[in-house]
Amino acid sequence: MYYIGIDGGGTKTTFTLINQDGFKVDQIKTGTTHHEQIGFDGVENVLSIGISNLLSNNDILKEQVKAIFLGLPGYGEVKSVKQKLDELAAKIFDGIKYGVGNDVEVGLAGSLAGEGGINIVSGTGSIALGKDLKGNFTRCGGWGDYVGDEGSAHWIGKKTLEVFSKESDHRIERGDLYYNIRKKLNLSDDFDIIDYVLNKINKDRAKVAEFSSICYESATRGDNNAIKIFKEAAYELGLLVKMIAKDLEFNEEIVVSYSGGVFKSEDMILDTLKEELVEYNVKLIKPILGPDEGACLLAYKLAGNNVNEEFVNNLSKDIEEVTV
């Protein structure tokens, strides 16, 4: 029998097929499954094609799939949206045992290998989820880019654009960030950035989030305004952890991990995050598994299986050749 984990995100979606022992059989990546970006029809199309290709590429029948777990951005935040996504999942996964949750759920399951603690997701958006000693869950953040998503790549990207405008006006001192953006976008006039954001990328949240990479480049070159943005992002992400730590029951030491593209900046975000959490006796660890593997773990558990160390070790390995 086989299991499928789907890690949906604001930028990409990963479909992972594993066997009974936890070894990866195949993995494919597609575009976003965020309904705000591609609509519900777009979500249905991405999921349907992704599942179909995963099975056909490996000569596996739908009946051979024992369980699927799908993590989706924005799931569970708006009742009408949740209902629509549930309807899509029931249609696409008809005949297969399945579960649907927010993408932070697969992040938590992966980063801590199913154990208790707190996971911070900071990709295009931001959210955190905690699981305590009694199995209680609490989430914090995940309000979307119009209301919140502080500390996310979109938030960093938006802050980067804000700093660029201030530097252009000489409201604050110009630095590497200002010249880096001018070079990257080949701007002859600073006001051309308005046309770029409004018309060329149509305020696309994933495209705005890409400015976080430019900010990171400038931060690594010592630009003070860029470094400040990352410190502010770490502060905001730390608030998510603090709220969950107060709401749930943990041992004296709280294990916290993370997932999402913002954490590719590593120490640029992690050093300040550690400082923010020093009073909470947090043990910040690298993710044990990725969110895509976390989705597989949840699919495996959904089918009634117990997860052990051997399964986790197998799941953490690169795709191996498996007879199907």
From TrEMBL:
SUPFAM superfamilies: Actin-like ATPase domain. CDD domains: ASKHA_NBD_eukNAGK-like. InterPro entries: ATPase_BadF, ATPase_NBD, Euk-type_GlcNAc_Kinase. Residues 4-299 form the ATPase BadF/BadG/BcrA/BcrD type domain. Pfam families: BcrAD_BadFG (PF01869). PANTHER family: N-ACETYL-D-GLUCOSAMINE KINASE. This is Acyl-CoA reductase.
